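Continuing the batch. This is chain 6 of the set; chains 1 through 5 are on the previous pages. Same settings as before, nothing changed between runs. Recording input and output for traceability.
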Amino acid sequence: MTRRILHVVSNVAHYRDPAAPTGLWLSELTHAWQVFAANGCEQRIVSPQGGVSPLEPRSLKWPLADASVKDWLADPSRMALLSSTARPDEIDPMAFDAIYFTGGHAVMWDFPDCGELQRITRAIHERGGIVSSVCHGYCGLLNTRLADGTLLVAGRRVTGFSWREEVLAGVAAKMPYNVEDEMKRRGARYEKARLPFVSHVVVDGRLVTGQNPMSARATAQHVAALLK
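Output for chain 6:
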């Protein structure tokens, strides 16, 4: 049976300062997309509002823009997927085996309080599917509650972009909140690699999270393995 993956991307194009652009960190999508495609999965992209998902400019520059990013940018059909993402109300969660939240600082604004994304995530999880995220994508898991009212992340092992990485990346002052601390406040058992900016994935049952952009491929590989 063909497995179906739902990728979640942001609609936000800038930090609080409109002159400071941000958006989807493209390799976090392209690396995972390659892994899922190689495993024969069907894939679809959704965003909180539907429509255009802006791209983080820094993710498009060498050396961060690898072959998968360049191939995506050069393919009009792939780029079209990011200009016409689905709205959450167009998504039937029963049709998907896994949800994968991509990152980029943009998601810090539109992922946490999107009730429709929470509904989809809850439904996929409670029917036995996989919930996954990479880097800042775990902002999308902050406020998701299960049918019994408990937080999805409470008591669960998770990872995501660390505050140390925010500082080293030179963007800590632009952050609307410290998501690492917010995860801990919700009872999540946050973990991170000893060294910043290295691939690190945490698997807790059907919850799979990757720490940073370098973790996207490994995160998707773990999800693909669980789907088998």
